[in-house]
Design a protein that fits this description.
single chain, mainly beta, 7-stranded mixed β-sheet, 4-stranded antiparallel β-sheet, 1 helix, globular
Length: about 130
């Protein structure tokens, strides 16, 4: 069973930037292209929501409307690491951020399920991001 470990969270001011990392153990570069990845977040009083998704096979990226243009999801398959670059941070970005992974495709297009939790087989423990004014 693979393990996901997030890091890079912290406290920043509104307008600041932060880069989150998710190290994936139990896989290697030769199998990286079979995986789908996503970043989710959960703020106090809110449901867990998808922030960004990445299909490693074709490098297609998906973003929630609330973060589009500010966040960027990327990968380094040689290092088995997923990243989330966050810029122009807002107070509403405050949340626990989780990376998630799925190995293998589904009959339904990634476009349809990237932002839903059930398809992802592995989850990290989360890293806290706090944005203050």
């Amino acid at each position: 069973q693979i393990q996901l470990v997030e890091s890079g969270g912290g406290s920043v001011q509104v307008g600041g930037s932060l880069r989150l990392s998710c190290v994936v153990s139990g896989t290697k570069w030769s199998t990286w292209s079979t995986h789908y990845f996503a970043w989710f977040r959960q703020a106090p009083g809110k449901e867990r929501e998808a922030v960004a998704g990445l299909s490693t096979g074709d490098s297609v990226q998906y973003y929630a409307a609330s973060v589009k243009g500010r966040f960027t999801i990327s990968e380094n398959n040689r290092q088995n690491t997923l990243f989330l670059e966050m810029n122009s941070l807002k107070s509403e970005d405050t949340a626990m951020y989780y990376c998630a992974a799925r190995e293998g495709a589904l009959p339904t297009s990634f476009t349809r399920w990237w932002s839903t939790s059930p398809p992802y087989q592995n989850w990290g423990q989360g890293t806290q991001v706090t944005v203050s004014s």
